[in-house]
Amino acid sequence: MPHLFERAPTGRAKCRGCGASLAAGEWRFGERLPNPFAEGDAEMTHWFHPACAAFKRPEAFVAWIDAGGWVERPGASDAPDRDLLEREARLGIAHRRLARVDAASRAPSGRASCRACRSPIEKGTWRIGLVYYEDGRFVPSGFIHPGCAREYLETVDILPRVRHFSQRPNPLSEDEIRDLAAAIG
């Protein structure tokens, strides 16, 4: 069965990418996968906000677009911006580590080390969280310095992702975004 793009009929599902609820009537992307807990050809669906799918599961999102999945729907004037999501998903495919980017925050201590340069991330400085996709969930996998983004991620075009995943519990202010952008370089 192909991947899905639809309005959520209820508000019971949560996004696998950010963990927030998918409200009733909100657009959602469903990644169809083989169900490892069932026999035969049974499948399961992992639900995502469209932006979360484009950022964290770019291969599935682009495969769905390339298969003709994105068509203009009557009454869908509130549908997400296709061009932006497709560009971000294709960028995620071109730079394989980009799908690992999660939220940015200030380091609460100096105990973490950067996955790129292996040096400590000093207390109070910016750090970018990373996650791996394993067994249907995103698992925290450390941090990088913002200045190490070019080396580790092979691009510095990460602000849309960082801004998106840094919304909970307190969104970053515009001043913090500018400060982070300067740290990225």
Which strand-content bin applies to the residues? 15-25%
> Helical element count?
6
Structural class: alpha+beta
Termini separation comes to: 43 Å
Helical residue percent band: 25-40%
Architecture per CATH nomenclature, i.e. the level-2 architecture of the largest domain = 2-Layer Sandwich
Mean pLDDT, as a whole number?
Answer: 92
Order of helices and strands: EEEHHHEEEHHH
Corresponding CATH superfamily of the largest domain: Zinc finger, PARP-type
Low-pLDDT stretches are: none
CATH topology type of the largest domain: first zn-finger domain of poly(adp-ribose) polymerase-1
By CATH reckoning, the class of the largest domain would read Alpha Beta
Largest sheet: 3 strands, antiparallel
How large is the radius of gyration? 17 Å
Task: Strand order, main sheet: write it out.
Answer: 1-2-3
Tally of discrete structural domains:
2
| Count of strand segments | 6
Describe this structure in words.
By secondary structure, the chain is an alpha+beta fold. It has 2 domains: 4-93, first zn-finger domain of poly(adp-ribose) polymerase-1 (2-Layer Sandwich), CATH 3.30.1740; 96-184, Zinc finger, PARP-type (first zn-finger domain of poly(adp-ribose) polymerase-1, 2-Layer Sandwich), CATH 3.30.1740. The chain is built from 6 helices and 6 strands. It has helices spanning 50-56, 58-66, 82-94, 149-153, 159-165, 174-184, and strands at residues 4-7, 27-34, 43-48, 101-106, 126-134, 137-144. It has a 3-stranded antiparallel β-sheet. Helix 1 packs across helix 2 (58-66), helix 1 (50-56) runs parallel beside helix 3 and helix 2 (58-66) crosses helix 3 (82-94). The protein is globular. The mean pLDDT is 92.
